[in-house]
Design a protein that fits this description.
heterodimer, A: mainly alpha, ABC transporter involved in vitamin B12 uptake, BtuC, two-stranded antiparallel ribbon, globular, B: alpha/beta, Rossmann fold, 10 helices, 39% helix, binds adenosine-5'-diphosphate, binds magnesium ion
């Protein structure tokens, strides 16, 4: 979107790679360094980065991106069932199939803009969700969800039949635990790199211009529809990749992954982190998954233990207040957090960082000014 | 016929009604290559509607608009731009969230890439020629000092000038200007006249809608007068100036 020097972007990329690969180390102090959570950070980071290419660059707000997440998961599990437990075909299959779905849904939804576009995407996602439970049961296995079975053909793995269910692997390496995280991390880095290239490219600039003034765009000679469709499909493929990675690290897929709350979550991640910024959506995804992990683990009993240092009636009172916000009620906390951010920091966490940076800069300048002003003042008073 | 060969824009028999209002009635207009053709007339005469029909914002009820041999009626705005018609709007249409430089680069990309191209691999910063050209055009219009500012914060006059820069970088064959100096201070107006005179020497055909008679008479080779959707006079500036029908339309229009 902006005209940045290649050097700055190279530095950004190097820092990003280092930060992602060392996540198990620097996230340890906050208790977020275990593989399951790290995998989630990376996977939902990819989801949010892709969503930002559509929503952040073009301004088109999709409320149905979870459908692509679901499609990616189902496709990946089918790849595990039919072809091989190797994750490479699974994620390719998941990403491509989500892309095909995105072409169809995008083609129809992009006939409208603004709220009508959002509603159309929401309708498509809810349709997919309902169909996964009903007519598509042979493909999705309905409410039970799609799982691996002993009797699956797995035509490329036929030789290596063992007892019990096989696990997902990358050329012999099991895709659970830290190897699973590093696999997701490499894809996150790749996903970020592609997003960075798009942001800096003429194509990205045109998307930003569409967001800014679509009328001017058409009188400037651009056919805006295919630009929007390409952005929509790219972000759908990111969602498909994220969905297939969810299946790659834990090979099952359920329709709840397509529910509208999941679509809403990625919107929250993007806005919370900073809409249209490169890093923001990733931070938003990490923050939401981190807090979800903490808050949903609490229950009444745990709260009683936490507040046990208080007198009995105070303890009961605190538990009474806090309980609705944790466990199942974690979404209440998320809602409150979201409201606070939107009201006080509409640019999300990234705006918060920018404000802090500006404040430090101002403070720095001010003390410089004071130093510079002091001798001048002394001189005038002498003269 | 050699006469018709250098007609750039040929509007013939165009009618347009809005509900019961006849906004354009049987408009015939021929714009010659290289000339600056002014369209004047009181408020609500149908001048902007005329341009809207030319750029594909409105479809005429009847009649046709030809750009050289290319029919413009029925084409979309982007197709019309791609054949070489650019327009400055009455209320500036710019990209308010982008910097001035970016505002000018986008139309340059349209000129180079056509109406669609997926170029997401080479960074924009590597497009040295394009950036240089954009900077050059901004310099031409005296906007180079603000090139890294966000355009939303500019004055109205500067926004109009920016929009002009966005059109000029495309080197259109035909430039349509809808009141390019409206709401500008005198010195800003003079500056815009200077710029328009300069591009006139480059041989670009222009249609300019203008209220300011000072602007009209200092720029136009040919003037058409529009009143209540019809062309009531048409000719060289001196002929039009003395035309009693024009004076009536103007005085009547202004005082009623
Ligand atoms: N899109 C529209 N819908 C309905 N009426 C319109 C529309 N555009 C213009 N008009 C009407 O047509 C007449 C001519 O308008 P316009 O071409 O803008 O005049 P002007 O000569 O001042 O540019 C006016 O009476 C205006 O109200
Ligand atoms: Mg007008």
């Amino acid at each position: 979107m902006s005209i940045q020097s290649a050097r700055k972007d190279l530095i950004l990329m190097v820092v990003f790679i280092a930060a992602v690969l060392t996540m198990p180390i620097w996230l340890a102090p906050v208790g977020a360094s275990y593989p399951d959570l790290l995998q989630k950070f990376a996977i939902f980071g990819i989801f949010a980065i892709g969503f930002n290419i559509l929503f952040g660059l073009t301004g088109y707000l999709s409320f149905g991106h979870a459908a692509f997440l679901g499609v990616g998961s189902y496709a990946a599990v089918w790849s595990f069932k039919l072809l091989t437990m190797n994750v490479i075909p699974a994620i390719i299959f998941g990403t491509v199939l989500a892309g095909i779905f995105a072409v169809l849904i995008g083609f129809v939804s992009l006939r409208r803009s603004g709220i009508y576009f959002s509603i159309l995407t929401l309708a498509f996602a809810q349709m997919s969700y309902n169909m996964a439970y009903s007519v598509l049961t042979p493909v999705t296995n309905g409410e039970t969800g799609l799982q691996l079975e002993q009797s699956d053909p797995r035509i490329f793995d036929a030789a290596a039949t063992g007892s019990g269910l096989p696990s997902t692997e990358l050329f012999g390496m099991k895709m659970s635990g830290y190897p699973g995280f590093y696999f997701c991390a490499v894809l996150l880095i790749l996903a970020f790199f592609v997003s960075l290239r798009i942001f800096r490219s003429p194509f990205g600039m045109k998307l930003a211009a569409i967001k800014s003034n679509q009328v001017r765009m058409s009188y400037t000679g651009f056919n805006t529809r295919p630009y929007l469709l390409v952005a929509f499909v790219i972000s759908g493929m990111y969602a498909g990749l994220a969905g297939s990675l969810l299946a790659a690290t834990d090979p099952l897929a359920g329709a709840e992954r397509m529910q509208w709350t999941a679509s809403g979550e990625v919107v929250l991640m993007t806005i919370l982190g900073g809409l249209g910024t490169l890093i923001g959506p990733l931070l938003g995804a990490g923050l939401i998954k981190y807090f979800e992990n903490i808050f949903s683990a609490y229950n009444e009993q745990v709260l009683h233990e936490i507040f046990s240092f208080l007198p009995q009636f105070m303890e009961n009172f605190m538990v009474f207040i806090v309980n609705p916000f944790v466990g199942e009620g974690w979404h209440l906390t998320l809602g409150a957090l979201f409201m606070i951010i939107v009201i006080f920091l509409p640019g999300g966490i990234m705006e918060g960082f920018a404000k802090i940076a500006a404040w430090f800069k101002k403070r720095g300048n001010k003390s410089d000014d004071d130093d510079a002003a002091a001798p001048a003042k002394a001189q005038t008073s002498e003269g | 016929m050699s006469e018709s060969e250098n007609i750039v824009l040929n509007v013939s028999g165009v009618n347009k009604t809005f509900g019961g209002l006849q906004a354009l009635s049987d408009i015939n207009l021929k714009i010659k290559e290289g000339e600056t053709h002014a369209i004047i007339g009181p408020n609500g005469a149908g001048k902007s509607t005329m341009l809207n029909v030319c750029v594909g914002r409105l479809v005429p009820d009847s009649g046709s608009v030809m750009f050289g041999d290319v029919p413009l009626t029925g084409k979309t705005p982007y197709e019309i731009n791609q054949v070489g018609v650019a327009r400055v709007f009455q209320t500036p249409e710019i990209f308010p969230e982008l910097t001035l430089l970016q505002n000018v680069i986008v139309p340059a990309l349209a000129k180079r890439d056509g109406n669609f191209k997926f170029n997401a691999f080479k960074p924009l910063s590597a497009e040295k020629e394009l950036i240089e050209e954009a900077e050059h055009v901004l310099e031409d219009l005296g906007l180079e000092d603000q090139r890294h500012d966000i355009s939303a914060s500019m004055s109205r006059g500067d926004k109009r000038r920016l929009e002009l820069a966005m059109c000029l970088i495309q080197h259109p064959k035909l430039l349509l200007l809808d009141e390019p100096t409206a709401g500008m201070a005198r010195h800003d107006t003079n500056r815009t006249i200077e710029i328009l005179k300069r591009i006139k020497s480059r041989g670009m055909t222009k249609v300019i809608i203008e209220h300011d008679m000072h602007v009209v008479f200092s720029l136009a080779d040919h003037i058409s007068v529009l009143a209540q959707g019809a062309i009531i006079a048409d000719g060289k500036p001196d002929d039009v100036r003395g035309n009693p029908k024009v004076q009536e339309a103007y005085l009547g229009g202004a005082h009623l």
